[in-house]
Amino acid sequence: MSVLLEAVNISRSFISGDSPCLALAPLSLVVEKGEFLVVTGRSGAGKSTLLHLLSGLDLPSQGEIFFKNRSLSRMNEMEIARLRNSSFGFIFQTPHLLSDRTILENVAMPFSYGEPVAHGTVDKRCRELLAYAGLEELIHRFPGTLSGGEMQRVVFARALVREPEIIFADEPTGSLDGGNSRKIMELLARQVNKGCTVVMVSHDPEAGSFGTRTLHLEKVESAEGVHS
Ligand SMILES: Nc1ncnc2c1ncn2[C@@H]1O[C@H](COP(=O)(O)OP(=O)(O)OP(=O)(O)O)[C@@H](O)[C@H]1O
Ligand SMILES: [Mg+2]
Question: Tens digit of pLDDT for each residue in 80-121?
């Protein structure tokens, strides 16, 4: 196994009113290629904050994060944007899809930025992934006509379309029932079997059982994150 992502003594505080609020207590973490890391902890423990830091959506107040030995805080905005677009995939609790674009167009969105790719390749890749997620019948529909589970599978297809090295998922099954939740988890687990790395925040013990390792975050009062 090789180290893909490393956080060294990172923390994040926000200023609220006059006093700083520590959203994430200092922690260090190594994510190896091919791991399926599940981050758990009570509401407010800093799980989303950690995911935002690891994925370059936010910068730590202290400490440093390395993706393949490159420090995210030493990259400029364009370099981070390029990295996020080409190497990272994102799935959040609520599916964010463009309502005036078809499912096929939504899944193709990540190709609008970064390295240009031939149109035929984009179309083929999007159709393959939508079929893989069991959505081939729906590709010309608009997001507003889909169920929550279907929308989350579209988000899954979009997250994979540029073949990311790592997928960051924040409560990806939070708004789904058992059956739909299991489908998403199986799709994620299959990606891990193919060599992709996943860092997922989840409260759901069943979803958590798909992980290969758990990181439990304690709320800030008790300081350190605990590995189990
Ligand atoms: N932009 C912000 N400004 C001020 N405080 C913030 C900000 N973002 C997060 N926090 C605080 O940091 C703490 C951790 O927030 P975070 O969203 O990471 O928690 P979480 O573990 O993801 O919780 P949940 O399970 O409810 O999603 C919370 O107390 C939250 O209020
Ligand atoms: Mg959260």
Answer: 999 998 899 999 888 899 999 999 999 999 988 777 788 889
Q: What percent of the chain has pLDDT over 90?
A: 72
Pairing outcome for strands 70-71 and 88-91? unpaired
**DSSP for residue 105:** H
The position carrying tokens 């008790």 is: 222
Band of residue 224 on the pLDDT scale cut at 50, 70, 90 = very low
| Cα separation values, 83 from 67, 141, 219, Å | 9, 30, 30
Which pair of structure tokens corresponds to residue 155?
């988000």
Hey, whose CA ends up nearest to atom 7 of ligand 1?
14
For ligand 1, atom 24, the nearest C-alpha belongs to 43
Helix or strand or coil: residue 140? coil
Domain 33-60+75-227 has CATH 3.30.465.10: no
Helix axes 119-132, 148-160, angle to 10 degrees: 140
Q: Is the CB of 225 under 6 A from ligand 1?
A: no
CA–CA distance, 108 with 13 (Å, rounded to integer): 36
Dump strand ranges (E) for the chain.
Answer: 3-16, 19-32, 36-41, 62-67, 70-71, 88-91, 166-170, 197-201, 213-217, 226-227
Which residue, among 95, 89, 107, has the nearest Cα to 200 in the 3D structure?
A: 89
Residue 94, ligand 1, Cβ within 6 A:
no
Domain boundaries of the chain, sorted by first residue? 33-60+75-227
> What atom in ligand 1 is closest to the CA of residue 16?
4
C-alpha–C-alpha distance, residues 68 and 91, integer Å: 21
